[in-house]
Fold each of these.
Amino acid sequence: KQEVTQIPAALSVPEGENLVLNCSFTDSAIYNLQWFRQDPGKGLTSLLLIQSSQREQTSGRLNASLDKSSGRSTLYIAASQPGDSATYLCAVRGSQGNLIFGKGTKLSVKP
Amino acid sequence: DTEVTQTPKHLVMGMTNKKSLKCEQHMGHRAMYWYKQKAKKPPELMFVYSYEKLSINESVPSRFSPECPNSSLLNLHLHALQPEDSALYLCASSQETGMNTEAFFGQGTRLTVV
């Protein structure tokens, strides 16, 4: 059974710092991996999608990498801003088509 | 347009009530999902519809009844719920359930069962 783990569970950084969020999964037979952002009480906003054949994807200040063989992904956020404060979730898509989520990393960026 | 619209945004219902949650997308996606999210927990899959047919039911109690009347709409009918069913219910859609497909989520329905 696929398990997704995110480390750290919470992170507090000063504004302007670069940071890395980690995601690991136990079964490397995935279709793709997706990073989401969730603000309190809100839905999920898709940030980046990495296909299983890809190594990384970039969007603005965000860069996500994928090492399928080792079951790891990282989300790099450059020059963090207070508006980046949210919970970041990674999810892997398995062969049945369902998304399996990690528990998330709660990020707080202090002004 | 990458919008998934869920209504209502908030719902309070008694344990003997019958209510429905609605989800709509106009992206031409053929896969639609219901997820349940409790506070400080990740979303948990409930149902998957693929081409308007139920393809995954994650052993959800029968008091939750999904319906996919057409490719743009997904409903979740609720009956005789328990207080522990209170949660954020999220709808999502994707082009298909397989590879090369990005999932888009709605803003959720905050359900409170009293």
Note: Chain B touches chain A through 31 residues (CB under 8 Å).
Amino acid sequence: VQVVESGGGLVKPGGSLRLSCAISGFSLNRAWINWVRQAPGKGLEWVGRVKTKADGEATDYAAPVKGRFTVSRDDSKSTMYLQMNSLNIEDTAVYYCAVDPSGVVGGGDCCWGQGTPVTVSS
Amino acid sequence: EIVLTQSPATLSLSPGERATLSCRASQSVSVYLAWYQQKPGQSPRLLIYDASRRAAGIPARFSGSGSGTDFTLTISSLEPEDFAFYYCQQRSNWPPTTFGQGTRLEIK
């Protein structure tokens, strides 16, 4: 399984960025995809999740990003997305894409990308 | 939101010793707790899910136990590569899923 994020970079406060996550070597039919971030020197923080097509591609978000971030998936391209709008300095972090292969309560994120850094600064 | 509290914040041990890391939840998460290992500059790696199930490829020296609000990750005999950060995550009541603040396991 290979998970590769891209799209990170430097953006000004109030700006937007779209991250991509390409997944290969894995069947995505039952997989939920999570985005998790890690601010410099800090711990892990869940950002959002998109469920499977069978689950209606339902999405959930952490409170700090709700209304500003959108997660989506395109299984035909084996690619997941995190659209980030109205970015602020507190969004500065390494963003990880993580695969939950079971798509059920419990379990764990088996497969993580290397992360893509996002820096919000004027 | 369920809060996870990990202890200790830092654990200093020598290779060959036994490590015991704790994670306490502010309310019951049943057995829906996972443990991750993260080394500096690397992404997290899943060690344990559903409190006690080892993920694929994880050595047998790693074990997890607990249910409800109290959980433990045990490393039976530390190898040099085990010195890292460890995070617990509850997967019972989300959104949101939450992580503990982490335990740093360092070489004594």
Note: Chain B touches chain A through 28 residues (CB under 8 Å).
Amino acid sequence: DAKTTQPPSMDCAEGRAANLPCNHSTISGNEYVYWYRQIHSQGPQYIIHGLKNNETNEMASLIITEDRKSSTLILPHATLRDTAVYYCIVRVSTDSWGKFQFGAGTQVVVTP
Amino acid sequence: DAGITQSPRHKVTETGTPVTLRCHQTENHRYMYWYRQDPGHGLRLIHYSYGVKDTDKGEVSDGYSVSRSKTEDFLLTLESATSSQTSVYFCAIRMASGGLPGDEQFFGPGTRLTVL
């Protein structure tokens, strides 16, 4: 599976959009981009995933560049409850066992 | 929460004692996983299961064994606990069935284990 690079931390003002970058320059054609987050002391929570098209759900939007070497997770209106560690993961779609490799992630702090 | 519970939620034990952690799910999912989380290492996969009596090793399986005799229960055993196994342990299930891409995992609340 391709390796991902994320900034270790970022701050965001409450009510503003939070844009979380992820670099995955070695991604291959059959690898999906997944985003999870982990609020302190809880289990990780699935947010969104995509292959090459932009995706949106009730939690966030995922923008994947045309060359697929990077992506951005957008939380459109950050709230204090969005303070968490956010993980960007790439995974081969043919990995039928569904194993995920989590990196260090980005610690996002949403401030009032 | 996808019907996942873990027990116990907290445990303190001594070096050399056996410890068993239980993950229980109520929705008949085929795939289950055990991870550990430590500062500086993120989440690491210990073992996983793709059905009753079907299990395989993850990246940090040394010192751990698992069993799955029923679909709903996935047990993680530390045969002889060591201080290096002090960690937070998360169980996860996979919602999709079969080998379809694009599936996601849902995690339990975690078990905090301290080995003295």
Note: The longest strand of chain B covers residues 42-51.
